[in-house]
Records
---
Amino acid sequence: MEVVIVPDAKAGGELIAEAMAQLLRHKPDALLGVATGSTPLPIYEALTAKVRAGGVDASRARIAQLDEYVGLPAEHPESYRSVLRREVLEPLGLGMDAFMGPDGTAEDVLGACASYERALTEAGGVDLQLLGIGTDGHIGFNEPCSSLASRTRIKTLTEQTQVDNARFFGGDIEQVPHHVITQGIGTILEARHLVLLATGEGKADAIAATVEGPVAAVCPASALQLHPHATVVVDEGAASKL
Ligand code: GLP
């Protein structure tokens, strides 16, 4: 695992956007796995700026979703599909034909999970997977004690994650869905390059456990230690307990 300490979130975003741009220059139709949450926004802003300045052509890029709420209509502004359309696809000039993700509205949720696994494989696998990290060490929505070999499946959010994510639902925890579909940890580990960004002191404990703790299901992000090409980018705050 490579750990890179950057001065701030903007610098982290720039560094990772450049890695994505380099990948696209080498493989224009790369499958980019993207994450939601506030942390990756500087990455998307920096990549969009590069595309608009003509520094990289993203017109053939493909975008894959990491996780999704169950039961939120796709057009709900906080469904991750909507968030990614707004924050990633539209700024990059991509249509939804470039997008793949699990169907959080499917009646057959298990079938939706299995079909997303198949779609990822048929697409040739994820080239670069961006990850954020929850304050409890979760990646995607793999909460603590998720199996390190898990595949895409339905999960129940912990109360901590519902509290953390209530800010996207007007601060009302009652509006946060209880169930989600997430790529499993085993699924995530199949991406060719994993890039995790964490910023702020609130992530310092989770980053210390990820980088210096044992590989253990209690900190799902520690599974990155098992990956041959994992990069953890942290600002001074997130690095403060290393
Ligand atoms: C959610 C997402 C994760 C993300 C996490 C952290 O739980 N499912 O993919 O990493 O939030 O979000 P933030 O970056 O806003 O702290």
---
Amino acid sequence: QQEFIIAPSVLNANFARLGEECDTVLAAGGDMIHLDVMDNHYVPNLTVGPMVCQALRDYGLKAPIDVHLMVEPVDALIEAFAKAGASYISFHPDATRHLDRSIELVRELGCRPGLVLNPAVPVASIGQVLHKLDMLLLMSVNPGFGGQAFVPYVLDKLKEARAMIDASGHSVRLEVDGGIKVHNIADVAQAGADTFVVGSEIFSADDYKAVIDRLKTRLTQ
Ligand code: DX5
Ligand code: ZN
């Protein structure tokens, strides 16, 4: 099993001082910054574009930035985020016409490609391209908002995805996003996830480190 990664989602951070929020959550034990990009088209919400990713790099952020594109179409923004300092770039397969081409584009631009599956999208649907990915991200809420409840049937999907990744022999991170809390992270890890996006559980707390310590404790118990 690969090591566990906690990727704090800054969706519920204070955007008026985003750089400091990133510093604080990384110092508190976050491993990479998860940046949720929403276009009010693919999802019913609007967040930030590549300028904000670039601004975080200019500010001095060194940690990996895990860009989660909830936009349609994807190719132009893949290019813009690669230029703006993204590390991982993940997108939803139903947001592009030419899935293989968009994955290749991420790779050609020097970033790590990931695919994101909404709760109702079967894991088997991306079987042909699994070997081209660095990350498979399973949504455990319907995308668009922080603070929603974990969709329980995603646990079975995680098990299926874990089996598929292990059988492939490729090193693909299995990330989960939505409703991850101190109380359920151990079950989610048990189901096979190794990379955990955590938003409101961290950013609604006063002490980010206390929450991340508790998350990590649950992972090692
Ligand atoms: C939802 C986003 C998530 C979200 C996670 O569309 O992709 O990253 O911010 O937030 P929590 O942990 O609050 O569910
Ligand atoms: Zn996300």
